[in-house]
Amino acid sequence: MSEREKMAEETQRLDPAIVAAKAKAADAKARASDDEAVSSEAETVAIVAKAPMKDEPASAEASASGGGAVAAWARQNVDPLIGGAIALVYVLWLLATARSLGFSRDEGFYFSASAEYERWFKLLFTTPSKAFERPVIDQIWASNHEHPSLMKSLFALSHHFFWDRWKIFADQSTAFRLPGMLSMGLALWVTYLFGARAFSRRAGIIAAVALGLMPNVFYHAHLACFDVPIMAMWITCIFTYWTAVKKGGLRWALLAGLMYGLTLETKHNAWMLPAVFLPHAIAMVFPDFASFLVRGRATAQETSKAANLPLASLVAMATIGPAVFVLLWPWLWHDTEPRIREYVNFHLHHDYYNIEFLGETYFGPPSPKSYMPVMIAATVPTITLVLFGIGAFDRARVLVARLVGWASDTLERTFAWPKEVPPSDPHHTDALLFLSLAVPLAVFLLPRTPIFGGTKHWITAYPALAIFAGRGFDLVATRIEALLAAKTTLDATKRSWALAFVGAITFVAPFAVTRHSHPFGLSAYVPFFGGTAGGADLGLNRQFWGFTTESLDPWFQKNTKPGDTVYIMDTAWQSWQRMIDEKRIPPWLRGVGSPAEAEISIVHHEQHINEVDYNIWTEYGSSAPEYVLVHDGVPIISVYRRPHGGQRGRARNR
Amino acid sequence: MSDDATEPKEKSRTPFAGWLLCAVPLVALVELALHVKQTSSDVVPESDWTAARDVVKAGLQPDDLVVFAPFWADPLGRQAFGEIASLKREGRSDERRFARAYEVSSRGAHVPELASWKKLEEKKAGALTVTLFENPSFTKVIDDTIDLVNPERLTVSRVDNGSEQPCAFQRGSSAGGSTVVPQGLLTPADKFVCMGGHVGVAVLHALDHHPHLCIYATPMQRGTLRLRFSNVTFGPSLHGHSGIQWLVERTPTPERIGVTFSAFDRPIGTHAHKVGAGWVGFEFPTAELDGKRGDLVAEIAPSSQRQFCFEATTRREAP
Predict the structure, then answer these.
(1) Are A282 and A306 in contact (CB under 8 A)?
(2) Can you list the residues of chain A whose pLDDT is less than 50?
(3) Selected residues 551-610 of chain A with any CB under 8 Å from a CB in chain B
(4) Which of A194, A236, A478, A484 lies at a CB distance of 3.0 to 4.6 Å from A49, suitable for a disulfide?
(5) Is-contact A207 A469, C-beta < 8 A?
(6) C-alpha span between A220 and A228 (Å, rounded)
């Protein structure tokens, strides 16, 4: 047999139609082993491609002879352990880089609110009866009550224990930020588990890696804010629901309800989750219902065993969820209904802030429909998007093929495509993942949705995007392995190493881009968009929240003296004070609120902030900054110094 | 189409799709190569800016413009060029007032306003390109009202029903600025203070997001704001520009702010600035005044728009 013929045979072996036939044989086994690859299609690929699923759960006998209970436990929990290891490494990376990232405006506000909440927790620990008095609750929890309290409470508790009591962290800010970083760990862990259980262990690993190696995600993962936490809770809630659907029973349904409550209590993105769960639940019962309409009661009864409406989970989420939301937020314990209404109205009628997109600053509706897709393309590493495209196309093809197969059965008609209908998935995993991806994104196609948050406002879609990318890599790796088998003499072990190498080089670019983006994550654009300078060329937002001020520290250290006043511009006062307290910038500097009061003025470069730049020119009578902080040659902050002699404005030029 | 007809096509497609999948990691390698290039050799070093400054400095004349492209590189240019990047050049009203222009560009970017200008020479300064252009429609500025905003050359008054109240000149503190945006136009430190407004030189953030050096003259709610520039040398034409702080202009309204110019008790012309128009120019012929010296009077009609800024120059077309 020639090499070409070998390749052709190998390729045919991987043809979905052929592998689907093999999948049928494995299908029963796949369903019995519920914790392993749930999608029959994915199971098939794992079988055909011999994907590395070596650490199968060990039997009792194996554990007895395999070196002790710990080893057996580890083998039985290999997926949680792999996911945990990825999460741990990532959180350590975040901790190692936290000191060099300044504080954003919102962090400053949340530091303050969390410090208030910490007062309440101290009361709770010392004089619980006082903590539950309404005046105390109203006074403390009024702080930043436009957002739910879960994360701020965790920031407060982390600060209380890890900084105040146990002195684990030197910086108070790191203690405040830790829960956000752990949220990122949770997001990676669940993304891995979801990918591994829906497709393959390899897909899970790649999904987690892809999610972690996005510059914007890496930036937000450092912060004591809610965006990465809601991303983590979003995918965790969906994963819990999916597990409840698979396993059934009350325990998982209750857990789904609890998770939804925690998600509601994290950020208002949770309001969109019903748009994920309800269509999915409908998808689960739709085939039976439609069959009933088309073919009559008898047929429907035959097939109804397969359909299993996740009613318990839905009811639990509709009841336990809101209860948890209220119970964990003391602000809602009194005047519950008006305060919930105030909270909802705040977000339904949120102010529009300025944000630049393609050279234009948007400040109100209609928001450009291209904003979300362009920003995703410009900020998510291109290789990740390519893999996502492959994986999503594959799963969409399977979904459509199943739909056509179902229509063929129901209508008793034959269609030209597909030749082989993929085995059905009673849990509709693909549909759930597509909904998890599409719902947060679809909102940004609506004209009235504000876009000022940049990518962070649809960050909840990224775990699903990453899982599809993991699936895409699975397909790529399968093909490469087949090619290696056909074209080389490498044995299976060497082929596995070769695939690991391919995986590594595939993610070197996302790693390099993400690592290099720090601490200017919001200024970073992917290489195919020209990098940071390309983003500037295109007129994409350079930054927001004024967090880059800390990066001026080296210049401040060399060029300022005790008592110098600095106009802090977009830096929040709380953020400035924390940077001073933690000696991230020279403690001898005194922040002031206008260029008129300042010896030194800074301006964070954003298009709508040009007015501040020009106002400084008016005040100092000069357009020449003394220093420009750059990232890859692109201005991030300009620093002006008042001209000698203290003269103001153009007077000095005459 | 029969099944038989489709089968060979599918067979021939599959290997190609397989090859494509195998090539996917190459995307990552290209991405990595681009990243390395963009973060190293593409970044313009400070020494290139210094070299470009030296090139410009060697041939710079007072009527020359200096611009940086792309616009986002402007802070880098201003830092390197210092006083060469003066407020008059950076906050220019228009390009016609400059005889020549030095364009310092990177990444192949250009200033669109110079597209029709004649290229005289081009030099490389590392990654930067310094190009000297000649203005085909140069109009030389004779007197610039911005230079006259001082108590020696300008008197300001508020006029209510024929009653004129002088506005005193003050050297003091600017007003405005905070840690939130929008902040609006900074009220300059040196200014004429009237009851209900002021007149001083400021840099406007106009609707085009560019800086424009201009006379920040707050229109009165009811009275007329009168500015009398003394000893102005007139030419064949009076040129001017006006704008309102960009935040106001980005929501257009039918409202107009009128500025009427006169000299020797004879009207020159009225410019009506429509809210939403952005930074716009106007031009009045003054051939009958050419060569004369006298007072130029600008009267700003009452308006609720507070952040109005304008400039005017007497000019002469270059021969």
Answers:
(1) no
(2) 1-60, 62-63, 298, 300, 302-307, 651-654
(3) 567-573, 593-596, 605, 607-610
(4) A478
(5) yes
(6) 6
Q: How far apart are CA A410 and CA A295, in angstroms?
A: 7
Q: What is the largest CA-CA distance in chain B?
A: 98
Residue A127 three-state SS: coil
- What is the residue extent of each domain of chain B? 46-137, 140-317
| Under 8 Å between Cβ of B313 and B139 | no
Residues belonging to chain B: 319
How many whole angstroms separate alpha carbon A499 and alpha carbon A350? 48
Record: contact B6-A416, CB cut-off 8 A: yes
Q: How far is CA A468 from CA A462, A582, B24, B36, in A?
A: 10, 41, 15, 27
B129 in helix, strand or coil?
Answer: strand
Give B274 to chain A, closest Cα distance, Å. 21
Residues in chain A: 654
At B149 the three-state DSSP class reads coil
Give the span between the Cα atoms of A79 and A37, in whole angstroms.
12
Terminal C-alpha separation, chain B: 76
CB contact under 8 A, B27 and A621: no
Q: CB count, 10 Å around CB of A209?
A: 25
Place of tokens 């940071």: A532
Is residue A555 within 8 Å of A636, Cβ to Cβ? Answer: no
**DSSP state for residue B112 in the 8-state scheme:** G
Q: What is the pLDDT of residue A645?
A: 66
Interface ipTM? 0.95
pTM for the full predicted model: 0.90
d(CA B26, CA A382): 11
Mean pLDDT of B9-35: 82
Cα–Cα distance between A633 and B38 in angstroms, integer?
A: 10
Would you state the structure tokens that stand for residue A119, as one six-digit string? 């007062």
**Cα gap A325→A258, rounded to integer Å:** 9
**How far apart are alpha carbons A577 and B281 in whole angstroms?**
46
Residue A340: helix, strand or coil by DSSP?
helix
Domain B140-317 sits in CATH at 2.60.120
Cα–Cα nearest to B168, from B186, B152, B192: B192
Count Cβ atoms within 10 A of the Cβ of residue A308 and give its class: 0-12 exposed, 13-18 middle, 19 or more buried: middle
Q: Residue B210 in contact with residue B221, Cβ under 8 Å?
A: no
For A186-202, give one letter per residue: b (16+ CB within 10 A) or e.
bbbbbbbbbbbbbbbbb
Q: Report the gap between the CA of A504 and the closest CA in chain B (Å).
A: 10
Reported as a single tens digit per residue, the pLDDT across A266-291 is 999 999 999 999 999 999 888 777 77
Per-residue pLDDT of A301-355, as tens digits, reads 544 444 467 899 999 999 999 999 999 999 999 999 999 999 999 999 998 899 9
DSSP secondary structure of B240-303: EEEEE-HHHHTS--S-EEEEEEEETTEEEEEEEEETT--SEEEEEE-GGGTT-EEEEEEEEPP-
Spatial neighbors of B116 by CB under 8 A, at least 6 apart, are: B136
Nearby residues of A379 by Cβ (< 8 Å), 6 or more positions away: A214, A215, A216, A455, A524, A525, A526
Decide: A200 and A46 in contact? Cβ < 8 Å: yes
In the numeric block, which tokens belong to residue A476? 């790529």
Name the token pair of A321: 């969820």
Nearest by CB to residue A625, choosing from B79, B150, B171, is B79
Query: Which residues between 76 and 95 in chain B have a beta carbon less than 8 angstroms from any beta carbon of chain A?
Result: 76, 78-79, 81-83, 85-87, 90-91
